[in-house]
Amino acid sequence: MTTQTPKATATRPEQPAKAPSRVLPEIPTWRRRLRPYLLSIPALVIVIGILYPFVVGAYYAFLNYAAVNPNPHFVWFDNFKSVLGDQVFWSSVRTTAIFAVVATAVETALGVGLALLLNRSSFIGKIFEKVLILPLMIAPVIAGVIWKLMFNPQFGILNHVLGLGNTFDWLSSTTALWSVILVDLWIFTPFVAILVLAGIRSLPKEPFEASEVDGASWFYMFRKLMLPMLWPYILVAVIFRFMDNLKVFDHIYVLTAGGPGVATRTLQIGAFEDSIINLDYSRGSTYMLLLWIIVFITARYLVSVLGKAQRRAAGAES
Amino acid sequence: MALKMRRSELLPGQKRLSPGSVVADVGLIGWFLFSLFPIAWMVILALKNAEEQTTTYFQFSPTWSNFATVLSDKGTQMTSVDFKAALLTSLLNCGGAVIVSLVIGIPAAYAAGRWKYKGSNDLMFQMLSFRFAPELMVIVPLFVIYNQIGLFDTKVGMIWVLQLVTMPLVVWILRSYFEDLPADLEQAALLDGYTRTRAFVMVALPIVRPGIAAAALLAFIFAWNNYVFPLILADSNAGTVTVAITKFLGGGGQAYYNLTAAAAIIAALPPLILALTIQRYLVRGLSFGAVKA
């Protein structure tokens, strides 16, 4: 993979086939070294273009910038003091944590289960595999609209089909968080399933045959052989799901807009309320900076776990 | 025989149509009832007429008229949502964003996949971090900046901000494809007298073409499905289908549930069709090249 260009064999481009014997001097090393950088410059511009607002946003967190206060000044950590002393913020942290942990855990368990079932199924699995990804490819906001229609207490189909009459409220202050988790796992369980299924299909056959000859039970083989080898695939899925669930917005916003009250007000919804609805940019940016720190630390941790698991799985395979 | 059963044999004791496979089938049917019911219900709702939309569940006389209404001027007057315009805007925004990402992303992905150079990993991980960063961290300042420099509610502004979605996807997926590409192939072309650029265009690009197509289509899907960016950074001029669809539920006025369902189906169709065409590459794409299925 580290191979560079050929040593001394670049020919003149205008007459390639006619004079293959005429060998031009080697491309200077500095030009070869420079090449990947030149190719990356446009992408670097994009990266800087995205980092610029990011830095500006971090700066806002230290100002008292709002639409009502267009000439802000530096207030140091006042925003952080005010946000961290606010009960609503901590309720948002709690909601985000419950949502991210529960949704990710259920999606992972269901997704691994689905992958195992699909792997073991007869012809039905072949058909289902094709339609498995349908909810995943529908925009989360459209999924939110679909479920919002189904959740409607009066005419919604769910209460009718499940025989709950027309009074059960799926989006009340006690039920809303669980209902949006239900929608999230409807959308994203297939994501875990297809990743793990790809993992199962890439596993080597020999260890399973060997332990079958040794008379190992199904459960023992699953726990001692399959799970360790699948662990990297499961972790990749967990990382994607957990990171996305920490910053969930679309389907919650369309289903409940964070309500009733603050029942489903996750951190991104809170930031949206503060900065876009109340036009208090500094407060919203403070929310986002705090969420970003949480995401950053979690990502670092999960990626290091993944690295370890990949090394262990590689050991288990060899 | 052994070859035919290879896939299902990874776990011990697996045979087609064994008791185990029947149990698995039953479990799968349970999941797919849950998974497909909301979609089936949307189709039913979209086929109902205005009287049936809230009064019946499964009894109705199917009509296609809702789809036509949603896309017509009459529908725009009824619901005050110009869905046709939103579809066109989505198409232009997402198509533009994907093209920009490809033009800029392919060289960067090639450089990162072919050579190890200082700073390569930093650039790649910076890209990846965009995938995981909370969107509002960037959008709130952009909301202020766009309003100041006049990019608010413009397609150019949307294409620019959508790079946050499409660029990491394109670069990471394509890097994994370029890494898998043997360098020998291009070297052979160089020996035959190709220039470096021609070797890339004539040899490397055609081989990774399926990867490019998959990355482009997946980037298009994610851009199409994006909601936060147009919600905050666009209004009537650059508003997309994802924003338009929520307006059907709109406050105050009369609710047109059957039209909402029809619009939801229209808006969901392009990503679904594209996803089915690149199904083979989905796992690799969705995991940013981390899982090579």
Query: How many distinct beta strands of chain B?
Result: 0
CATH topology of chain A: the name is: MetI-like fold
- In what range is the share of β-strand residues of chain A? under 5%
Please state the average pLDDT score of chain B: 85
Assign the CATH class of chain A: Mainly Alpha
Radius of gyration of chain B: 24 Å
Q: Indicate the multimeric state.
A: heterodimer
CATH superfamily of chain A: MetI-like
- What is the number of helical segments of chain A per DSSP (H or I, 4+ residues)? 13
Fold-level CATH name of the largest domain in chain B: MetI-like fold
Name the CATH superfamily assignment of the largest domain in chain B.
MetI-like
From the structure above, extract its key features.
heterodimer, A: 318 residues, mainly alpha, MetI-like fold, disordered N terminus, B: 293 residues, 2 domains, 0% strand
What does this structure look like?
- The complex is a heterodimer of chains A (318) and B (293).
- Chain A has helices spanning 29-60, 78-84, 87-120, 123-131, 134-137, 140-151, 157-161, 176-202, 206-213, 218-246, 250-255, 267-277, 281-317.
- Chain A is globular, with a radius of gyration of 27 Å.
- The two termini of chain A are 22 Å apart.
- Chain A has a single domain, classed as MetI-like fold (Orthogonal Bundle).
- By secondary structure, chain A is mostly helical.
- With 293 residues, chain B is mostly helical.
- Chain B folds into 2 domains: 14-74; 78-286, MetI-like fold (Orthogonal Bundle).
- Chain B has 14 helices and no strands.
- Chain B is globular and about 75 Å long.
- Residues 1-10 of chain B have low confidence and may be disordered.
- At the A-B interface, α1, α3, α4, α5 and α6 of A face α1, α4, α5, α6 and α7 of B.
